[in-house]
TrEMBL record:
<protein>
    <submittedName>
        <fullName>DNA gyrase subunit A</fullName>
    </submittedName>
</protein>
<keyword id="KW-0238">DNA-binding</keyword>
<dbReference type="GO" id="GO:0005737">
    <property type="term" value="C:cytoplasm"/>
</dbReference>
<dbReference type="GO" id="GO:0006265">
    <property type="term" value="P:DNA topological change"/>
</dbReference>
<feature type="active site" description="O-(5'-phospho-DNA)-tyrosine intermediate">
    <location>
        <position position="60"/>
    </location>
</feature>
<dbReference type="InterPro" id="IPR013758">
    <property type="entry name" value="Topo_IIA_A/C_ab"/>
</dbReference>
<dbReference type="Pfam" id="PF00521">
    <property type="entry name" value="DNA_topoisoIV"/>
</dbReference>
<dbReference type="GO" id="GO:0009330">
    <property type="term" value="C:DNA topoisomerase type II (double strand cut, ATP-hydrolyzing) complex"/>
</dbReference>
<comment type="similarity">
    <text>Belongs to the type II topoisomerase GyrA/ParC subunit family.</text>
</comment>
<dbReference type="GO" id="GO:0003918">
    <property type="term" value="F:DNA topoisomerase type II (double strand cut, ATP-hydrolyzing) activity"/>
</dbReference>
<dbReference type="InterPro" id="IPR013760">
    <property type="entry name" value="Topo_IIA-like_dom_sf"/>
</dbReference>
<dbReference type="GO" id="GO:0005524">
    <property type="term" value="F:ATP binding"/>
</dbReference>
<dbReference type="GO" id="GO:0003677">
    <property type="term" value="F:DNA binding"/>
</dbReference>
<keyword id="KW-0799">Topoisomerase</keyword>
<feature type="domain" description="Topo IIA-type catalytic">
    <location>
        <begin position="1"/>
        <end position="69"/>
    </location>
</feature>
<dbReference type="InterPro" id="IPR002205">
    <property type="entry name" value="Topo_IIA_dom_A"/>
</dbReference>
<dbReference type="InterPro" id="IPR050220">
    <property type="entry name" value="Type_II_DNA_Topoisomerases"/>
</dbReference>
Length: 69
């Protein structure tokens, strides 16, 4: 696993220089088992709930690509 903040920083630096919130929100959505049919990101930490609880800040979560991705 790698810190989400590091992955977001790499994406902003290389591909999407318009702010970190859009990138992190997309990562969170890909890590939620209730958002997509298949989870594309395997995450550790608080990525929100189906009841509307928001995800933890990116400095508290870790991610890696799921096997399906």
């Amino acid at each position: 696993y790698k810190k989400s903040a590091r992955v977001v920083g790499d994406v902003i630096g290389k591909y999407h220089p318009h702010g970190d919130s859009a990138v992190y929100d997309t990562i969170v959505r890909m890590a939620q088992p209730f958002s997509l049919r298949y989870m594309l990101v395997d995450g550790q930490g608080n990525f929100g709930s189906i009841d509307g609880d928001s995800a933890a800040a990116m400095r508290y979560t870790e991610i890696r690509l799921a096997k399906i991705a």
